[in-house]
Amino acid sequence: MGELKAVMGGMGRVGIMRRMLGSFSLNYGSRPCAISLVLSGKHIMHFRDMLKRINRSGGSIASLFVLFGVIAHTHWLARFRMEMADRQFALMDDRTLYEMKTIDFIHGHLWLVAAYFTVFLCCLLWLELRTAPRWVVCVTFIVWALPSLTYARACFHIGNKFIMWSA
Which terminus of the chain has fewer Cβ atoms in its 10 Å neighbourhood, N or C? Predict the structure, then answer.
C-alpha cells in the first residue's frame, strides 16, 4: 500500500507535518483552496466531496438513532402506564393483552433490541461505505424499520390507554 498524502492547492511542501504524522504527508499542488486525498499518486477525493459524502451518509444513521430513541421513549411510557394502571385498563381487549405480553417480552429480553439495532446499523454503514444508490438505502431503512415501527405502534396503543381509577 502506498503513501497517503493530503494535497492542498497553492502552497509548498511541509516537512514538519510529515515528521509528525509519519507516512502521512501534506503535498501542495496547483488547486487553490482545495484539499484532496491522494493514495500512491492516485487522486481519491476532494475535501468538498468528503463533506458531501458525510452529509449524504449521515442522514440514514441519524434517522436510525432518532427512530430507536422514539421507540425507547414509547417503550418506557407504555411500561409506566402498565404499572400505573396495575395492568387493568378501561378497555381490555385481545389486542391490549397481546401488546402487553409483547412489551413484557421485549422488556425481559432487551438484548434482542441491542442485537437488532447493531445489525440495522451495520447494514446501513455497509450500504453507505459502498456508496449504494440513495433509493437502495431508503428502501433498506424502511424494510428494517417496519418491525420497530410495529412495536412502537403497540407501545403507543398501551401508553395512551385510559386508566380505571379505583377509589
Answer: C
The count of structural domains within the chain is 2
Mention every residue, 6+ apart, whose C-beta is less than 8 A from residue 79: 103, 107
User: What is the length of the chain?
Assistant: 167
Q: What is the pTM of this model?
A: 0.64
Q: CA–CA separation, 21 vs 43, rounded Å?
A: 20
- What pLDDT digit, counting tens, does each position of 105-145 carry? 999 999 999 999 999 999 998 988 887 888 898 899 999 99
Residue where the block lists cell 420497530: 148
Strand-strand pairing, 35-39 and 42-46: antiparallel
Domain that holds residue 105: 53-159
Whether 152 and 77 have beta carbons less than 8 Å apart is answered as no
Residues 34 and 72 in one domain: no
Kindly state whether residues 75 and 144 are assigned to the same domain: yes
The verdict on residue 47 lying in a domain is no
